[in-house]
Structures are given as structure tokens and as C-alpha cells.
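DATA SHEET
Item: assembly model
Revision: 1
Owner: S.N.
Input lines:
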Amino acid sequence: MPNKLGSKQDLEALQKDLINERKSGKPTIAVCNGTACHPYGCAQLIEAFKEELSKQGMRNKAELRITGCHGLCEKGPIVVIQPGDIFYQRVKAEDVPEILHETISKGNIIDRLLHTDPITGSTIVHRHEIPFYCKQERNILGNNVEINPTKIEDYIAIDGYTALAKALLEMTPEQIIEEIKRSGLRGRGGAGFPTGTKWESCRHAPGDIKYVIVNADEGDPGAYANEGLLSGNPHSVLEGLIIGGYAIGASQGYIYVRNEYPLALANITIALNQAQELGLLGDNILGSGFDFNVRITRGGGAFVCGESTALMASLEGKVGEPRAKYIHTVEKGLWNRPSNLNNVETWSNVPVIINKGADWYCKLGTDGSKGTKIFSLVGKINNTGLVEVPMGITLREIIYDTGGGIRGGKKFKAVQTGGPSGGCLPESLLDLSVDFDELTKAGSMMGSGGMIVMDETTCMVDIAKYFLTFLEEESCGKCVPCREGIKRMRQILDDISEGKGDEADIDLLERVSATLVDSSLCALGATAPNPVLTTIRYFKDEYEAHIKEKRCPAGICKALIHYYIIEEKCPGCGLCVKACPQEAITFMGKKKPVVLDESKCIKCGACYDICKLEAIGKE
Amino acid sequence: MDEKVTAIINKYDCDKGQLVSILQDIQAEYYYLPKEALIQVSESMAIPASRVYDVATFFRAFSLEPRGKHFINVCLGTACHVRGAARILEQIERSLAIKRGGTSKDRKFTLETVNCMGCCAVGPAVKIDGEYFGQMSTDKVEGLLTKFE
């Protein structure tokens, strides 16, 4: 660990040394160690690289960099080799000797590890030429591949903490707030409140003790954008927080992390300790006279704790129940003191704005939404992963150019943004420009960055029911409209999905929704109807098919479907016979189709999953 | 007094604001929150037992019941849901003859669900004892459980 940094000059000197070290000319092997690469065995891959580098006596000839998420999680584990920007995907431990021997030593490309474009079918060598990356602007996430998130030296070598030095030593708090206001940065947690305005209100709120808080309780199911950022570049979040603390006049910061994100938790904890050791946290940071400390607190798996007042209650050691916000948290928040809470991604934007300036920053984006937005692009799409796109890009560009289109040649049905508070948008809105206001107008919202793509095999009634079931469990129960309203709406949807729906149900759902919007205590209840209202608005025919025809067009709602054997396709292999937990399928001899007894079938879908010959039908 | 619990409380300087983290650490030690531990937290931190119980039952992550040797977490996040997570859960429920939230009779497995664990790209995802398994299908369940027998 380098010595404690007492001044800007110390930081600059250290940075110079670190940059020189990196200029050694050695090739770098960046291996993704993100959470989504773990199921693919990236831990074993990293071990294999370590062992093989020693074995081949190459430890001084190449640098192994264990990084955070590279984005294209679908193809993990990912290895990027510099110089050359060579992109290898689905790399296994067995491939390591060859990579070292061929690519590192001789500069040869290994064709079988290259990326194939799902649309054109061509193979691509260089990362920057892969369509998944082409339309992205990775201002925030891009550094993930440049650094080992557990090494502060790596972050400093790529200009890390220079924004902090500039802010503390060359700018007044007012100038910083002005810069953030001018940048047009809006809160990335969901609602999109202007960040600079929020900071200003908190700075002006009466009180000597103030707090700044990182909301890293990314509870939106299906979004891991904050996870990828916090685990892949924790210092960028921390640097933003310290700058915010200085601008607002807070000397204590909190980072509230989801406990379900062990890697993010570990990496931000390491980052915090390193920043403390280097004197970038604590007393008199870089000789500026500014003191600032940070504490990490873990959540307990409650979605409502992503709501600012609930999160603050949880920070006080209480249950995470929200309160009415006629008094804003910037005036009375944590321990009743002025508190400024922002999302992980918002904080991470701050050093970029300070370093490059508001003028540079607001060139990207639309009139009302500046900069970039990170999305977790998942679901029935070819290139699942974390993407960072300029505001104003269309949904179509994200889904088809970046995402590579729909999996398995299926037809696009809907894209869901904003998580349980957002909505499902249909094909007719694919050319919608993605910014805070356009998404809200369409009945959805930006949210914290979930973007879930659905195809023709997704049932929209089931999706609405899914979100309400989720919200019913996550409602804290403090206010009646949310506690009872969501439950009743879920019961109505249960009926519809079981073929017991009534034609008046759609109207009833809309009326209960209106009550929730008007009278819920916090945004959890007030936005809970969005998934229902948008699916009714854009996919009413599916509701009607369930209600009037007692039919689930997507083949998802169990009560309305049945499985059958397509005899011409069935060779009688017997795989489904073994897979069936109910012994409902009978083996009739080789080359003879099996027989399914529908009275025993529980519609678990095990036979459907295991049959690779598509000999099981579902309708 | 349980020394492990005392050590955890001291690690957080008896800070009442860290109650959730303290309970997380106790659960990491015992795999659930034993009643005695909750009483000890209440007494040594001067937090009413009702408040400790309130927090322990509010958050989804906590269990007041002992758990099995292996801990299975099935992700039910939206990305996993649209790729068939519910069917994976049902298959595990049938294989172990328990329902979500339950512990198998032989105390080998506890089955829980989580709303997202941050690897949405590889869903449906299942985590057993901290190890991640992606792109699950119903026919992979049996083999996976056998690995942890």
C-alpha cells in the first residue's frame, strides 16, 4: 500500500508512478470476475491463469487483471487481451494454456473463442467492433475492464480521485452544486429528480450535522446495474459520495448495500478501507481541511428499503417502514437531520462531471435527460448483460442493435422497464426515445435500470400477477391502500389466470389502481398498479382471451393449458417418461410414441423441457 | 451469554443503527436467529425485545427457524421469472418434498427464494451454499441436488 496522501501533489506523484508502471508494455489479460460470470466458472478460470502463468514462467511477461463485470454477461466468462482489444468469450480453464502460448506469446488469434454476431453470423476479433458495444457510451461502466476493483492503485492510475482533489482544493461547495445542476444530472434511482437541486436544498437546510447516503439496495427484481457498478468500480461511487459530502456540508456518509450482493459488499468494504489508509477518507482529506467518514450498512432483503424514508429508518436500526414525505428528507431525514440520498449510479456520475465539466456532460442525452443510463438488459434476448447507453437512444436500438434481437428466432412481445413500479411497452412503442419523461408518458418509468425483454411465450396477465405477488409480499403493511389494494388486485388476477375472470374485472382493476395511486403512503403503493395498467393498456386482447375464451395465448397460465404428445415427432426415446414426476407418461416400446395420461398430469413442464425433438405440445 | 454474539455486537460498537447488520452476522454464524441470541442483543444493546423481534421478522433474509445443512436460494427475479424460474422452484419443491421456506426432514436442505441476486443475465439462477448455478432447467435439478447430498 502506498503512503498516506497529504496533498494534491502527493496524489499526482503517486498517479504518475502508477501510470508509468502500467506503461511497461506487458500484455494485459483482463478476466471478468463479475457475479454473472460466476455460474460459468470464472473463479476456476482465474485460478487456471494464475497457475499457468507460473508454470510457463510468464509471470513477468503478462499482467493478469481480475476485473468486475464487462457487460456481455451472456457470453461469460469473458477475457479481454490488450494490446489488440482481443475479445474471447465462454473461456474455460482448459483454454488457458493455449491462450498464453498462442495469443500472448505469438499473437495468434484462437478462432473458437471469438464472438459470433447473432444477426450476421460473422466472427469478430476486437471488442470495440462487437455490435453489443458499438452503440454504447460506457462513460461510467467502461472503467470496469481497466481496473481490479480491489486495488485502489488501479483506480488512481486511471485518473481516480483527481475529481475529488479538484473539488476539495479548487472549487467551493456552491461551485460544485452549480456544476452538477448545469450538467442536468437526474437521480438514477428511478424518479429522476434533479441531483443538483436536491444537493442545494440539503446544503441550505438548517442544521450542523448532515448526512449523505448511497442507496445500493437495488431491490428491483431483474436489475443488477448497481451491482455491476458497485462490485466493478466501487471507488467511483465512493469518490462521488465524498465530493457530495463536501458540497452539501456533511461529514458522515452511509452506504446501504443489499446483503444479496456479496461481491459488491466485499468490494466496497475493501475500497473503503483502502481509501481510509490512503487518507482519502478521514480527517483533513488531501490537506483540504475537510473531514469525512463513511459507514457501510447491509440491508435485509426488503424491497421497500429502496424508498428513501424506509431506508433511513432501517439505517436507524428500525424496520424499514416509510413515512409521509410532506417534510422532505433533505430537511429531516436520518436521525431527523438533513440527509441527501442518491443512487449508486448517480454518485458514480459525479466524478465524471467534475473532471470533464458540465458542458461536456450535457452534450450527451436529450433536452430533459442528460448523460448515459445503465440498463440490465435481460430476459428473452440474445445478448443479455449490462449496457450503458446515451439517453435518447430508442428501445429498438437497445434491443436489436445492442441486444442482438430476440432469442431463438421468437417474436418480440414487450419490454418491461422500471421494475415493479414500471410498465410493459409493446412493439408499437419500440421507437420511443429512452429518457425519463418519454418513459413516464408511455405509462412506464426509467426506474433503476431493469430492462426485461419478453417474447411471444410470455403471458402479460402472468407478468402483471408476478409483479403484484412480489409487491404484496414486499408491501410493509403500514398503509391500507397498498396493503389491501395490492392483495385484492392480485386475487382478481389470480382468478383471471385461472379462467375464473369476469368481464367487469378489467374495470375493477382500473378503479382499485386509481385508489392506490391517489392514497398510498409511498411510491411502492402509488406505482404498484403500473404493471397492471400498462398491460391492460397495451395488451387488452390477452386479458380478454383469458376472461372470455378461457385461453392463455402464450401457454403459461397452468389452469388454461394442457400438454399433449405430438405422435409424428415422438420416437419413443423415453426421456420424458423418466422426467415426469407423476408417472403420467407411459413408455410404449421403442420407436412408438409415448402416451400421456392427462388425468395424472400436474403441468409441471418437465417433459416439455427435456424433449429436444419438440414432440411435446402445449396449448 | 453467548460469546460469539457478544463479539458480533462489539464489532459494531454496540451501534443501534447497525442492528440489521448485527442480525445478519448472527444468522451467518448460526444459519438462523436463535431466540437466546435475540434476547441477548436486546439486553446488551438496550433495544426493547419487541423492536429486535420486529426487525427480525420484517426483513425477508432472516429466519427464526433452524435451517438445514445446505441452503438453496432460488431466484424469482423478473428476468428469471420470464425464463421459467417458477418451474425450477416447483421441481426442487417436489424433489425435496418441501415447500418454499421449508427444511427437508433429514435437515439436509433449506429452500428459500430471493427476488434477485444480481446475475440476471444467466437466469434462471439458483444459489446453493453461496455457489451460483445459471441457466437452470427442470431436468438439471436432480443432478444439482445430488452434488450436495
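QC remark: The radius of gyration of chain A is 26 Å.
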